[in-house]
Write a structure and sequence with these properties.
14 strands; five-stranded parallel sheet; globular; disordered C terminus; alpha/beta; single chain; Rossmann fold; 33 helices
């Protein structure tokens, strides 16, 4: 949600409100969405997501917590609430604008990739960290659990300055582990406690290096941070703690628009609020001072007296709702993690149970409790919420004016009104795209998913948009780095999304709105899609709904053959990946043999090579120091050949040796994980067309994983961190597209000393070739023929240009006799002048 300007104010007065703290030997409640963004902001996102890199960063972070004997409880956001829609739309427009002007070398404003949060959950599972996805926004749940466990909150949301919790802003947490020696009792007075750096977050290192770490008797490990306590603010300003929620509402949040307080602001004195403070900073100081002399009841009465009569009842209700959100004590996570029964929570996927407060309910037709008017753009909403896709990376308080104030602060100067508050808002276009003015969502306060679905949501197995599809029948499209002259790259997966919506609303035939970008413009629009008419019924009581999942290939004539071949020839962990590639090749206008080969090579590197070369190192110097590749020879010949013996993919995987992985990675692949020198010197070499094609594939994987979980996981979910590195894929595509014979290049230049890796690549290609048209020999030969024709045309063009230039020179040499005679006379005249 966020409180406008409060983070800036606290940071400017950090010496008064923030205390230095050593974090160790405790529990900590983590705002998962906020932390996931904070950890990604140092990773380049221009190529669509370096998910393997991000996975290691997250695992390293939780490894550090473990080293410091810190137990983390991570809470993830669920669906949006109706009051957030105007903020969501504003942020979507902002994200589109940021992507359109993205510079891959200067990614100052990180654009988070579509599957960032899913990779974050993958890392939590890998590290066995307890987590839970909330039904809606997680802020109140985080605060309630923190108070029950009496432990700090780690987040970057200014709302936690108002919640009565110990709050650690995540930007103040050093991503380093220190060790402090504890002297003996006898020498405490003589020996100074020594601070020593032990380790720091290292995305290239082994994320399991913290396993088995034991704290020595005479030292402890900790992470340095700053901690805020609500008493710091109330003591400094002479406030009672119950006044702070009202203070937050007056500054503006999602409960009440700040513009409604215009008349009230005019009656609050601006006396001595600081000459160098921003407009919002002055407002904070003035409000804190005014609240010192009021009780909660008297303050609310005075505020309501300054609004129109027809808004008084509504405003009082909104203020009460806002205050209750900051002080409620119910915690679903407390029960979910097993604390209510005084038992220590175990593995959350196996031991977690649904809290008693959530009963099994099913959606019924016409169960909606009312109609909510959706405003096109709420002019009183400034996007001050800080829990959306881009907000948590760098907390934004939306300061109204960053310039210094004038020297005209007087005794009688009133608190500035919101006359300028709308200057950063999104103005409605002359032709609005939000054509669906009303919708009928399920009442959020009463909404409880069916039990079979609730288990999957709470466990974090489903993305947050599932709740939106159920409560508001809305899907907010997460725009990717793409070519904005082309249609939305996520449109390719809409049929899968329709199937997901059909499952969630069976047996009713309904429609949902799809909020997405407008082609060629920095704008958004609504589209409308309906449930699919299918001849199969989804069985919520069944563990597997394989037949329903197979509807994704319902337009394929050979769909049964595809699933049969994949079941028989492809290892279980990558079957869904192959289905995604087949779907992508069928419906994409961009997918070609270069895309498919690049993707398969990336999967081989991230799965087979990295698994044999732990720790995963991308730096050439570190790699050479750790693995000594110069002293290792590759494998000249494989034991078997795929073409002759028809080896399966599983057999090829077993034959891969560690030595050939070391040699191949060092000699051929390491440089593909970083931005090339050519791109650094000339950033125009960056092609959004290439990233657009891979963006389509990401969208397919994103939706397929969700559908697979809903259907009871008939296949193993695609492990995103082991199949996609955007930078590697971009560089590999750029390399392969210049080659007339891709397979020959891979054999001769990429895997010359790795025949077993080459066999693995061939085996994958053999499975896909019958179902992916661009991989057929005929298509490849046409590509070569077309390339030769283009080369021939370019040679002829260059030849014609040379001939034209020669003709020009020849014409220049054939001078006019009169001109030659005139030039000769000039030369003679010059000689005479010199004499």
């Amino acid at each position: 949600m966020g409180v406008r300007g409060l983070t800036t104010y606290i940071a400017a007065n950090a010496d008064r409100y923030l205390d230095e703290h050593e974090l160790h030997d405790c529990n900590v409640v983590i705002d998962g969405d906020s932390l996931s963004c904070q950890l990604y902001k140092s990773i380049n996102s221009a190529f669509g997501g370096n998910y393997d890199h991000y996975f290691r960063v997250v695992c390293n972070f939780f490894g550090m917590l473990k080293q410091c004997n810190i137990t983390a409880y991570v809470l993830l956001d669920g669906g949006y609430q109706a009051k957030k829609l105007s903020t969501v739309k504003q942020r979507l427009r902002s994200k589109i604008g940021a992507i359109k002007h993205l510079n891959p070398l200067m990614d100052s404003q990180p654009t988070f990739p579509i599957m960032m949060r899913e990779v974050f959950v993958e890392a939590l599972e890998h590290c066995h960290v307890l987590s839970m996805r909330c039904i809606f926004e997680a802020d109140d749940e985080v605060a309630a659990l923190s108070r029950k466990l009496k432990c700090p909150v780690l987040s970057f949301d200014s709302d936690f300055y108002i919640h009565n919790v110990q709050y650690i802003p995540s930007v103040t947490l050093s991503l380093k582990v220190f060790r402090r020696n504890i002297p003996d009792e006898e020498s405490k007075k003589k020996v100074r406690l020594r601070k020593e750096l032990v380790s720091e977050i290292n995305s290239d290192g082994d994320y399991d290096r913290f396993k088995g770490t034991e704290v020595k008797r005479k030292c402890y490990y900790y992470m340095q941070c700053s901690m805020y306590r609500i008493a710091n603010l109330t003591r400094d300003k002479g406030l009672r703690s119950e006044m702070l929620p009202l203070f937050a509402i007056l500054l503006g949040n999602d409960y009440v628009p700040s513009s409604i307080f215009k008349k009230f602001y005019l009656n609050v004195s601006m006396k001595k609020t600081g000459k160098n403070s921003t407009k919002q900073g002055k407002r904070i100081i003035a409000l804190l001072r005014w609240l010192q002399h009021e009780t909660l009841a008297s303050a609310i009465d005075k505020i309501i007296n300054h609004v129109e009569k027809d808004k008084k009842v509504w405003l009082r209700e909104q203020i009460n709702n806002g205050i209750s959100g900051y002080i409620h004590e119910k915690s679903m996570a407390y029960d979910y993690f097993g604390f209510s029964s005084n038992e220590q929570p175990g593995d959350y996927l196996s031991a977690a149970t649904i809290p008693d407060c959530l009963v099994d309910t099913t959606l019924e037709e016409d169960a909606d409790t009312g109609t909510l008017e959706e405003e096109e753009v709420d002019k009183s909403d400034h996007g001050e919420g800080e829990d959306d896709d881009n907000s948590n990376a760098v907390e934004n308080d939306d300061e109204d004016d960053n310039s210094s104030s004038s020297d005209s602060d007087t005794e009688s100067e009133p608190l500035e009104s919101d006359s300028d508050d709308n200057k950063d808002e999104i103005q409605p276009n002359s032709k609005t795209h939000d054509s669906f003015d009303t919708y009928t969502p399920t009442n959020e306060t009463l909404f409880v998913p069916p039990e079979w679905l609730l288990k999957k949501i709470l466990a974090g197995q489903l993305p947050r948009y599932v709740v939106d599809l159920m409560t508001m029948r809305l899907y907010v499209n997460n725009c990717q780095v793409e070519n904005f002259l082309l249609p939305d790259c996520n449109a390719i997966s809409v049929p899968i999304l329709q199937l997901i919506f059909t499952i969630l609303h069976q047996p009713y035939h309904r429609e949902f709105r799809y909020l997405t970008r407008v082609q060629r413009r920095t704008d958004i629009e609504y589209k409308r899609f309906e449930s699919l008419s299918v001849d199969r019924e989804f069985d919520t009581a069944s563990d597997k709904n394989r037949k329903f999942f197979e509807l994704i290939l319902r337009d394929f004539e050979n769909s049964e053959t595809i699933f049969k071949v994949i079941e028989e020839t492809v290892p279980s962990d990558i079957r869904l990946l192959f289905i995604a590639i087949i779907y992508w090749a069928r419906y994409s206008k961009h997918c070609n043999v270069v895309y498919v080969c690049s993707l398969l090579l990336c999967q081989i590197v991230l799965t087979e090579i990295d698994s044999r070369l732990e720790p995963t190192v991308r730096d050439r110097r570190k790699f050479e120091k750790i693995f000594n590749p110069n002293g290792i020879k590759g494998v000249e010949n494989a034991k078997k050949n795929v073409d002759e013996n028809e080896l399966s993919i599983e057999e090829c995987k077993k034959d891969v040796t560690r030595n050939e992985c070391i040699v191949t990675q060092f000699n051929r692949l390491l440089e593909l994980f970083s931005i090339s020198d050519k791109l650094r010197t000339k950033h125009t070499e960056f092609s959004s067309d290439i990233v657009h094609g891979f963006g389509e594939f990401q969208s397919i994987v994103y939706q397929l994983n969700c559908l697979n979980v809903l259907c009871g996981e008939p296949y193993s979910n695609i492990v995103i961190s082991k199949c996609f590195n955007g930078c590697f894929l971009f560089n590999m595509y750029s390399t392969l597209k210049e080659r007339p014979n891709i397979r020959y290049f891979i054999k001769t230049f990429l895997f010359p000393a790795s025949p077993n890796l080459l066999n693995l690549f061939k085996a994958m290609m053999l499975v896909l070739t019958p179902f992916v048209g661009c991989l057929s020999s005929e298509t490849i030969s046409k590509r070569k023929k077309r390339r030769n024709i283009n080369k021939k045309k370019s040679r002829e063009q260059r030849k014609n240009n040379v001939t034209a230039n020669d003709d020009e020179h020849a014409n220049a040499d054939e001078e006019d006799p009169n001109e030659a005679e005139f030039e000769d006379l000039n030369n003679r005249f010059s000689c005479l002048m010199k004499m």
